[in-house]
Write a structure and sequence with these properties.
The structure is a single chain. The protein is mainly α. The protein folds into 2 domains: about 30 residues; about 300 residues, ABC transporter involved in vitamin B12 uptake, BtuC. The chain contains 12 helices and 2 strands, in the order ααααααααααααββ. The protein is globular and about 55 Å long.
Length: about 325
């Protein structure tokens, strides 16, 4: 238990130090408002990417419609706050709860037929769902005028601060870590490795695939709800199927089966995009696809398993367990 406690203390200290450094940079003006917004966006992407990491990286369910759930969370949470017409904290928290529950419900309804598919077929089905959501958001104003339709949605109270984004990011990391190190998480990992063998020992894979899919999409909904209260303009194009590749790249580049890799790569990916936008100017939109492809090719050639592989650091690493003889053994890696 001493090793685990030391890891926990070091992780808590690291979080506090990171927060203190960022707040100092903000208060002293070293981090200007533009890069503050980029930092907020990177942490929001951490939350959303954790959801896909659980679904794809750990459970092996190839989903490329993740941005659709991100968008559903943003629009549902934004609509609640807009209709309440107040920027109070209770209203904000209610909106986030609605974002998560609504996205989880849609994920459950979609998952019932879709999760029966395997590999590429599951990816194609989720890709189709992403297109459906984009078209639905484009025409949503015909049923609910407040959603704006193809012209975009405005008027959502902007109540999110760095503290809120940081708090929910840390919370999402802790919940994801605890889920993965629980019995449910271990079963999901076993399904990824060999679904037939998992079924042979009496486990129902469909139940756990649905569980991790709904949970991962709920995290995407949470990220979307925070995004809606951080950016004053929502547009369906911000959540189309092309945006799903951002989440997919983060999970694959960070390392399949590594929460640490997902967190680090999500932050790095957003800052890389903004750095390229700053360096290339208007040419960024024309060349970003080429640059992304070259970077991914280099990563695949140099480190096929991703930046972190399946390794974890700090408190995200599996706990040490006691054997019958009282000796400590590290829990098996994910």
């Amino acid at each position: 238990m001493g090793r685990n406690n030391n890891q926990l203390i070091k992780s808590i200290a690291g979080v506090i130090i990171f927060y203190a450094l960022i707040k100092t940079a903000i208060l002293t003006g070293f981090l200007n408002p533009y890069w503050q917004r980029v930092l907020d966006q990177s942490l929001i992407y951490v939350i959303g990417s954790l959801g896909l990491s659980l679904i794809f990286g750990f459970a092996g369910q190839f989903s490329i419609g993740h941005a659709a759930f991100f968008g559903l969370g943003a629009y549902s949470g934004g609509l609640v706050s807009k209709m309440l017409g107040t920027g109070s904290i209770p209203a904000f928290l209610l909106a986030l709860l609605v974002s998560m529950l609504f996205t989880a419900l849609v994920a459950y309804l979609i998952g019932k037929p879709v999760l029966r598919l395997q590999s590429d077929y599951l990816g194609i089905a989720t890709l189709g769902f992403g297109v459906i959501v984009k078209v639905a958001l484009d025409n949503a104003n015909k049923l609910i005028p407040e959603m704006g339709g193809a012209t975009g949605m405005t008027g959502v109270p902007q109540v999110v601060t760095f503290e809120w984004v940081f708090f929910f990011t840390v919370l999402a990391i802790i919940i994801s870590r605890n889920f993965l190190h629980s019995t449910y998480g271990r079963v999901c990992t076993s399904i990824r490795e060999d679904e037939i063998a998992t079924s042979a020992v009496g486990i129902n894979p469909a139940k756990y695939k649905m569980l991790v899919f709904v949970f991962g999409c709920a995290l995407a909904g949470l990220a979307g709800g925070i995004y809606a209260h951080c950016y004053p303009f929502l547009h369906p194009s911000s959540f189309d199927f092309l945006q799903s590749f951002n989440f997919l790249i983060i999970v694959v580049a960070g390392g399949m089966g590594s929460l640490t890799g997902t967190v680090v790569t999500a932050v790095g990916w957003v800052f890389l995009q903004e750095g390229l936008r700053f360096a290339l100017g208007e040419a960024f939109m024309d060349w970003r696809g080429v640059i992304y492809a070259v970077l991914l090719i280099i990563l695949v050639l140099v480190r096929q398993q991703g930046l972190f592989g399946n390794k974890e650091i700090g408190v995200l690493a599996p706990r040490a367990v006691l054997t019958k003889g009282g000796k400590k053994n590290a829990a098996p890696e994910s």
